[in-house]
Structures are given as structure tokens and as C-alpha cells.
Amino acid sequence: MAMIEVRHDGAVSVVLLDRPEALNAISTAFALELTERLRALAAEPSTRAVVLASSGGRAFCVGADLKERDGFTDAQMYAQRAVLRALFDAVRELPMPAVAAVGGFALGGGFELALCCDLIAADAGAVFGLPETSVGLVPGGGGTQLLSRRIGLARAADLIYTGRHVGHAEACTLGIVDRTAKSGAGALDTGLELAAAIAANSPIAVRRAKHALRTGFDVPLAAGLEVEDAAWRVAAFSPDRVEGIRAFTEKRRPDFA
User: Fold this and answer.
1) Boundaries of every domain in the chain
2) Is 193 a catalytic residue?
3) 136 — alpha (psi -120 to 50), left (phi > 0) or beta?
4) Average pLDDT by consecutive 10-residue portion of the chain (257 residues)?
5) For 70, which DSSP code?
6) Is 132 a catalytic site residue?
7) Is the Cβ–Cβ distance between 100 and 191 less than 8 Å?
8) Which one of the listed residues 25, 31, 64, 122 is annotated catalytic?
9) Which is the catalytic residue, given 25, 63, 104, 132?
């Protein structure tokens, strides 16, 4: 039975986590299926933005399936580690922007799935946390690195060392949430609205901008500026630049191929 559903809404692709009976806990099979779907989307030129969301409202994803892990040998843990790393890599390596639409619990690996995306949209019921230290583990899906880059080292240390949960209001204050659902709207609606705004722009420019942001963030400024210049050149000498400027002068919406 499929645990991942992919829907296409114009240039936006929605990846729905659909294992509601386990609150989208990441089992080995779940991780393999999600990785496969994400890699297929990465090679899909018509997709300009991706929304990662849950089919249910109770949880976005509660992280690793600890029931499956109960009784794992060291060899089984080691084997699953490779599968999970491939999953988080697949999210981070999407060439188009990805928006996590978080409603309900986003814990452990579920929070890390959201952190691997470019932007996080959430509704008032969203709850975030990295409780790995409470079960004898360290966040292993990028949590120690991505959360500290997003909200700062000390704030990330607070959440990781204590394993505590933070609700929507505190998550906004900390800088975890980028877009909040308006009254009456859910996380998915908000994520779709944000993704649609991204998809309306030049896909070449947006992809190269993502590459420049991701590649240039942790390098010296001079190196980062070279990354930016290379991205600019790809976009500036593309058909999208010609169409974008022509549409601007003709006072119409651009029709990016």
C-alpha cells in the first residue's frame, strides 16, 4: 500500500505523507518510497516548486518509527542509517524550492524533513521538537546543522539538549516558521500559496538562486560572490531573461517556457 501521494497543481507538485495510522512515522519502507518519489520530482522539468505536507491533520511527521526499531541489532540500525541519510539528502537536493507545510506534530526526523526544505509554512496547531536525546540518540537528519543555521547555535542547543517541544507561537519567535496560516486556512493552503508565488517566477532564475543561496552560505564572501555571479550568468543569458524583460516593458505577465 502506497504511503506517499504526489499531486500536481500546475507547476507546483504536492508530496503528501500518507501513513496516518502511524502519524507518518518514518519506517524503512516509508523512507525508501519517499526518497524514490522525491528523486523522480527532482528530474521533472515542469515542476517549479514542491510542497511537502501530510494527508492528515494530527501530525506532519513524528520522526523515526521507534516501534520498528525496537529490537534492532546494531547491523540493522547501521543499514537503516544509510536509507535515512538518502532520504534527507533527497529533500535537500531538490533543484527547485521546497516548502514544508506543517500542521500538527513535526518531531525528530519529521522536524528535520521540514528543515531540509527551503521554507516552512505552519498553522496554529504546529508543534516542533527534536527529542532524540531523550531516547539515547542525536538528531541525524541534519537537525544539529540545519536548526543552528536557521535560529542560531544557542537556541538550537536549547531545543536539542532538552528535547522539548515548541508550539507555533514560540516557533515563530525563534524563526522556525517562515509563513503562518491565516485564520481559517490550513498549513497546506498556506504552503500552496507560497509555492504558487515561487512557481510564477522564472524557473531558471529561481533554481539558480536556490543553488547560490545553498552553496554560498557557508563559504567566505568572495567565494560566495563567485557562486552568485555564476548563477547570474546562467539566468541572464537564458530565454527567461529575454521573456521577463519583454513582459515587463509590455506590462503583461511573463510566459516562462
Assistant:
1) 4-199, 203-249
2) no
3) left
4) 94 97 97 98 96 95 96 96 98 98 98 98 97 96 97 98 98 98 91 97 97 95 98 97 96 93
5) T
6) yes
7) yes
8) 64
9) 132
